[in-house]
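Hi L.,

You mentioned the student needs an example of a multi-chain input paired with its predicted structure. This one should do, with 382 residues in total across all chains.
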Amino acid sequence: MKKMNVVIYGATGNIGRSVLSIIRKNKKFFNVEGITCNTNVSKLLKIADSLNIKKIGFNEKSLKRSVRLNQKKFEIFNDISDYEKMISKKTDIIVFANSGLSSLELLLKLLKLGKKIGIANKECIISMGDNFKKISNKYSTEIVPLDSEHNSIYHLLKQNYGKFKSITITATGGPFINSKMETLKKVTFAEAIKHPVWKMGTKISIDSATMMNKALEMIEAKYLFNLESNEINAIIHPQALVHALVNYENGISTAIFNKPDMRIPISSLFFKFDRFKNFNNNLDLTKKSLEFIQIDTNKFPAIKLGYSIMKQGGLAPHVFNYINEKLVNLFINKRIGFLDIVKYNEINVERVFSKNTNVYNPKIEDLKNINQWIDNNLYIGN
Ligand code: NDP
Ligand code: MG
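Structure written out for the whole complex:
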C-alpha cells in the first residue's frame, strides 16, 4: 500500500487526537504533510516533532512567537487564511477537524481542490447548505463524513435493501437525559461539558447537553445526503452502539454496531474495514441492554426548533447555527443560563426573519451580511 499524504486541520483537538492515534498505530502507511491548530502552538510542535511533520499552521500573528519557532525546520502558515496553501499536489487526504464556523472560507477553498476530505466539522456543512454538495460535486472532491452518525449512514447507503424511506440518527441524550427541568435551569458550565460517553471539545459538548448537537446533525444529514426534513428522525440510544439506521419502505432497517470510539468512523477515511482490528473494540452485546427511546422535545426543544429550521431552509440553518455558536459562548462566559441557549435561539431566529428576507441558495456574502445583522441585534433579554 502506497503511503497516504495527509494534512490534518484541527490536529490539536479531540478529533485530531483520534486521527493521530490511528496514524501512530499505522505509521508505515502515512506521511503527514501538515497540521494546524488555533493557538495551541506548544501541542502542535510536539505533534510535529513526534511525526516529523514539516508544515505547521496556527492563528498567531505575533512575529515574536514565529521567530521563536525553528523557522528552518518548519514551513509556517501563520493565519487561517493561509492554511489552504498547505495542500500540495501530492496531498491525498485532508482531515477537516477544526471546530466552529471560523473555518468556513477555508473549507470553501478546500472543496475546490478535487481531493478526498474527511469532514468532522458539522457547523461549516450546515452553513454552506446545498452549496456544500454542489461545490464538492462540481470539483470532484470526495467527501467522507466523520461524524459517527453520518459516517454510519454513508456506509449503509452503499448497500440497497429496497426503496429508501428515511434515516434515524441516535443520540446518547447527553449528561441531562435523566434530569428534571428544575435541575436544567441551574446547570453550570462544568456540568454541561461532562458527557457520559464521548470525550469531545467544549462547544460540541455543550451542544450535546442542550441536544442542539442532534438538531445540527439532522440538518447536517439533510445536506450530506440530500434529504427532506420528513426523511430524518432522531431517537435516544444511551448505549451509543448503534449510531444511525437507514429505513426502507419494505420495513427493513439497516445499522452498523460499533463501540463509541471515533477512531472507527475515522479509520474508514483511510482504510477498508479490515484494518480496524487494531483497536480494542470487540463488542459484547450480551453485556449490554440496548434501549431506544423517543426524545422528550418539551425537555429538549432544540429538536423541534431543528425541524422548523430545516423546513424554513435558505439562510435559516446558517442563522440557527451562527446564533447557537454565539449563545454557547455567552453561556461559557456566564452571561446567559443553560436553558437560555435554545430559548434565545428561537427568539432570535424569529427576529432575524421578521427584519430580513430569507435568501435561498445563499452565497458567502449573504452569510456575512446576516452575521453582521445578528452581531448588531442579538437579543439576550433586557
Ligand atoms: P476541539 O475543540 O477538541 O478541537 C478543535 C480544533 O480546532 C483544535 O485543533 C483547535 O485548535 C482548532 N481550532 C479551533 N478554532 C480554530 C480557529 N479559529 N482556527 C483554526 N483552528 C481552530 O473540538 P473537537 O475535536 O471535539 O471537534 C472538532 C469538530 O468536529 C467540531 O466541529 C465538532 O462539531 C466535530 N465533531 C467532533 C466530534 C468529537 O467526538 N469530538 C464528533 C463529531 C463531530 P486549538 O487546540 O489551538 O484550540
Ligand atoms: Mg455525532
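You could point out the following to them. The mean pLDDT is 94. The first strand starts at residue 4 and ends at 9.

Best wishes,
N.
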